[in-house]
C-alpha cells in the first residue's frame, strides 16, 4: 500500500533536519544516540500514520461445529438481525459487517459459517484461503446438551482446521509464517512452562460450549469430565474456552463481545471473569490456563488422541459411524425450506413416480403368474 504524499514530504523534511543536526553537533557527546532515538520515533510515527490510512481493514471469523447448536442464531444476534425462523445452514454461508468509527478507517468483518462437519474438507479451505490466515479467528461451537457427541465434533473440527492450516502455511512466504508463529506464541506467553507440550494453531480459536442452559443441570461428574476435555483441547491449541446460551443474557453478551473483539478489536478483553469451576460457565481467555490448573501432571501431558481416549472412558462417546446412520430428515420436507411452487412440482413428480412403481409391481406379478 502506498503512503499518502504528505508522508513522503514529512519524511524528507525529517531527513534534512537530521543532516543539519549531523553537521552542527555530530561531535557533541551523545549526538549519535539522540539521532538514533529521533529516527526510531519518526519510523514509529510513520507506521502509525500508515495504519490510520483510509484503506479498509478486514478481519475474518470462521464459525463451525455441532449441527443445530445455535451458530446461525449467534451470528444473527451479533448483526442485529431479527429472524424468527432461522433456517439450518446446509453447507457454507457468508455474511459481512462494516463499521466506521470517528476518525478511523472503515473496518470490514467477513463471517463464514459451516453448516456441518460431515465431508467438509474442501469447504474448510474456502474462508481460510479466500481471506488468508493473517486476520482469521475461529469459533468452534460444541453442543453441550449432547455429551456423547462432544468428542466426535471436537476432533473433526480440530483435524480439519489443522490440516488445512498446515497446507496453507506451507504455501505462505517465510516471513508470513514466522509472523504467525510469533503471534501464536504471544497468545500463550504466560504459560511458558507448557510451550513444549502444545500444538498451537496459527490463529485464535475460541472453543464455545453451546446450550449451557441444558448442560448446567447435568450431573457434576459428567460436567467435570466434559469441562476437563474442552479445557485440555483449548490449552493444547492455544485457544480460549467460553460456555454460552442465548437464553442466558450474561453469557450471550460475553459471546457477542468476544465476536466484536476478534472482529473489530473491541473491547480490550471481553471475558469479564476467569472461571474454571465446572459447576459454572467456563470463561478462560487465551494463555490463562495450564496443565497444572487443569489437573494434569508433568508426566501425563496430553495429546489429541489421549484427550479423546480419556473422555471416551469417562463419558462413552457415540461413534462417528453411528452418528452418520442417524441422519436428519430429508431437508426437502423441512418446514424451514418450504417453497410453494417447488413443493407442488415435487409432489406432482412424487405421484408420477409412485404410479410408475405401482405399474411395475403389477406387471411383475402378472408376468410371474402367466410365465
Automatic annotation (TrEMBL):
Subcellular location: Cytoplasm, Cytoskeleton, Cilium axoneme; Cytoplasm, Cytoskeleton, Cilium basal body; Cytoplasm, Cytoskeleton, Microtubule organizing center, Centrosome
Transmembrane segments: none
A Pfam family matched in the record: DLIC
Keywords: Cell projection, Cilium, Cilium biogenesis/degradation, Cytoplasm, Cytoskeleton, Developmental protein, Dynein, Microtubule, Motor protein
GO cellular component: axoneme; centrosome; ciliary basal body; cytoplasmic dynein complex; microtubule
UniProt cross-references to InterPro entries, sorted A to Z: DYNC2LI1, Dynein_light_int_chain, P-loop_NTPase
GO molecular function: dynein heavy chain binding
A biological process term (GO) from this entry: intraciliary transport involved in cilium assembly
PANTHER family, A to Z: CYTOPLASMIC DYNEIN 2 LIGHT INTERMEDIATE CHAIN 1 (PTHR13236:SF0), DYNEIN 2 LIGHT INTERMEDIATE CHAIN, ISOFORM 2 (PTHR13236)
Family named by the database record: Belongs to the dynein light intermediate chain family.
Listed name of the protein: Cytoplasmic dynein 2 light intermediate chain 1
Organism: Drosophila virilis
Amino acid at each position: 500500500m502506498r503512503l499518502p504524499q504528505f508522508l513522503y514530504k514529512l519524511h524528507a523534511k525529517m531527513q534534512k533536519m537530521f543532516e543539519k543536526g549531523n553537521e552542527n553537533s555530530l561531535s557533541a557527546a551523545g549526538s549519535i544516540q539522540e539521532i538514533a532515538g529521533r529516527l526510531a520515533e519518526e519510523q514509529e510515527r510513520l507506521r502509525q500514520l500508515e495504519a490510520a490510512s483510509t484503506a479498509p481493514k478486514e478481519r475474518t471469523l470462521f464459525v463451525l461445529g455441532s449441527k443445530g447448536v445455535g451458530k446461525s442464531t449467534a451470528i444473527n444476534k451479533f448483526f442485529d438481525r431479527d429472524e424468527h425462523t432461522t433456517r439450518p445452514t446446509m453447507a457454507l454461508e457468508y455474511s459481512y459487517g462494516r463499521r466506521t468509527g470517528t476518525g478511523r478507517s472503515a473496518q470490514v468483518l467477513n463471517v463464514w459459517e459451516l453448516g456441518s462437519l460431515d465431508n467438509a474438507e474442501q469447504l474448510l479451505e474456502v474462508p481460510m484461503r479466500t481471506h488468508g490466515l493473517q486476520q482469521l479467528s475461529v469459533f468452534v461451537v460444541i453442543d453441550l446438551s449432547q455429551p456423547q457427541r462432544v468428542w466426535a465434533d471436537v476432533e473433526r473440527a480440530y483435524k480439519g482446521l489443522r490440516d488445512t492450516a498446515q497446507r496453507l502455511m506451507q504455501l505462505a512466504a517465510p516471513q508470513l509464517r514466522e509472523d504467525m508463529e510469533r503471534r501464536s506464541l504471544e497468545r500463550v506467553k504466560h504459560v511458558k512452562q507448557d510451550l513444549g507440550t502444545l500444538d498451537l494453531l496459527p490463529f485464535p480459536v475460541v472453543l464455545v460450549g453451546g446450550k449451557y442452559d441444558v448442560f448446567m443441570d447435568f450431573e457434576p461428574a459428567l460436567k467435570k469430565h466434559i469441562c476437563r476435555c474442552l479445557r485440555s483441547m483449548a490449552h493444547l491449541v492455544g485457544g480460549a474456552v467460553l460456555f454460552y446460551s442465548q437464553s442466558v443474557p450474561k453469557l450471550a453478551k460475553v459471546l457477542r463481545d468476544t465476536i466484536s473483539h476478534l472482529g473489530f478489536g473491541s473491547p480490550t478483553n471481553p471475558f469479564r471473569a476467569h472461571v474454571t469451576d465446572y459447576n459454572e460457565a467456563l470463561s478462560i481467555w487465551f494463555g490463562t490456563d495450564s496443565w497444572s490448573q487443569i489437573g494434569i501432571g508433568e508426566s501425563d501431558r496430553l495429546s489429541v488422541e489421549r484427550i479423546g481416549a480419556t473422555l471416551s472412558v469417562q463419558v462413552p462417546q457415540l461413534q462417528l459411524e453411528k452418528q452418520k446412520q442417524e441422519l436428519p430428515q430429508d431437508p426437502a420436507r423441512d418446514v424451514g425450506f418450504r417453497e410453494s411452487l417447488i413443493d407442488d412440482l415435487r409432489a406432482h413428480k412424487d405421484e408420477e413416480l409412485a404410479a410408475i412403481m405401482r405399474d411395475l409391481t403389477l406387471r411383475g406379478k402378472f408376468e410371474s403368474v402367466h410365465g
